[in-house]
């Protein structure tokens, strides 16, 4: 009987039989009547939707001999391929699991589970081999492939080729949101020189606030460019970017964007004092005390803190619009 192994306690040894989840699978196991197709459907659903340690292995061990000739990694592989196929064909529901979880959520769950349960050091390579063709398929929307690669990046060690593809998709998504006519082939290797040339060209073309924001995000894709360590404001991409933004764009939105870009620059490459001082001077021309104080009191440069406080001291009258809680907290520190 296909129930004999449950009756023998094989399932009970690995998991708590009183758990309602386990009971539901025991019932489904009974209804399967030992038919391989039914058993495999049950195992596939378990692989995609459950996180109980050992449950899939336990259910698999209960299957009668010669019914399911698979290991847990085989079941997980089937589940990964099904989730990727659902992403490829979102208009068709391929499994009822996708009624309650997105394919991306299913993938994340499977990867966590398979990496936790498997003792095989090559399981990460197996996952990459399964999903690489999907990520390379240019017929699939960029944002979908990018999401899958980002899930993989959090879970496994990417090869240099996979890392380049991830970076390329990130860059394509950013650039095409603002410059859809920009030519960027998926065979492009995004080395430092290529990324620098790309930034230089787009900065020259840029004339909108949203474009400058995109270029700031572009500078944060991948390792910081070597030029971000330049002390000369004329060659440092961050000072060039913020300076150009303040030259072309006006108003509070432009000042807010310049402030955010400045703080991004500090985090991204620990922007040097000379470049910080240059941006300080550009912001002074805009005569917005709150943006000067909020920006430069958050740097690690004590000299800039002193410069910001010095400006505050010579202001005849400070209004509520000239400071906020961030500024007050930094001054009190």
UniProtKB/TrEMBL annotation:
One Gene Ontology cellular component annotation held by this UniProt entry = Dsl1/NZR complex
GO annotation, biological process: retrograde vesicle-mediated transport, Golgi to endoplasmic reticulum
Q: Which domain of life is it from?
A: Eukaryota
Which residues does the UniProt record annotate as the domain NBAS subunit of NRZ tethering complex C-terminal?
37-159
- Entry's Gene Ontology molecular function annotations: SNARE binding
UniProt cross-references to InterPro entries, sorted A to Z: NBAS_C
Please state what the protein is called. Answer: NBAS subunit of NRZ tethering complex C-terminal domain-containing protein
The species this protein belongs to is Amblyomma cajennense (Cayenne tick)
């Amino acid at each position: 009987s296909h129930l004999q192994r449950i009756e023998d306690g094989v399932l009970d040894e690995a998991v708590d039989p009183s758990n309602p989840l386990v009971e539901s699978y025991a019932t489904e196991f009974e209804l399967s009547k030992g038919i391989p197709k039914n058993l495999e459907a049950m195992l596939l659903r378990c692989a995609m939707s459950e996180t109980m340690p050992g449950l899939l292995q336990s259910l698999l061990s209960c299957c009668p001999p010669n019914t399911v000739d698979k290991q847990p990694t085989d079941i997980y592989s089937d589940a990964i391929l099904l989730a990727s196929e659902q992403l490829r064909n979102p208009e068709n529901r391929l499994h009822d699991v996708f009624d309650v979880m997105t394919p991306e959520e299913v993938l994340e769950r499977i990867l966590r589970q398979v990496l936790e349960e498997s003792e095989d050091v090559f399981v990460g390579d197996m996952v990459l081999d399964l999903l690489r063709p999907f990520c390379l398929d240019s017929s699939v929307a960029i944002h979908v492939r990018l999401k899958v690669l980002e899930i993989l990046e959090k879970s496994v060690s990417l090869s240099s080729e996979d890392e380049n593809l991830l970076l390329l998709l990130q860059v394509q998504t950013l650039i095409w949101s603002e410059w859809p006519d920009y030519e960027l082939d998926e065979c492009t290797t995004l080395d430092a020189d290529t990324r620098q040339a790309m930034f230089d060209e787009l900065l020259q073309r840029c004339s909108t606030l949203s474009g400058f924001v995109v270029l700031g995000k572009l500078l944060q894709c991948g390792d910081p460019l070597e030029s971000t360590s330049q002390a000369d404001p004329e060659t440092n991409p961050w000072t060039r970017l913020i300076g150009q933004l303040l030259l072309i764009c006006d108003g509070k939105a432009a000042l807010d964007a310049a402030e955010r870009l400045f703080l991004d620059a500090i985090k991204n490459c620990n922007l040097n004092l000379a470049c910080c001082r240059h941006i300080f001077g550009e912001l002074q021309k805009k005569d917005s005390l709150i943006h000067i104080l909020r920006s430069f009191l958050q740097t690690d440069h004590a000299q800039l803190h002193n410069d910001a406080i010095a400006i505050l001291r010579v202001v005849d009258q400070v209004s509520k619009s000239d400071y906020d809680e961030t500024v007050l907290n930094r001054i009190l520190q």
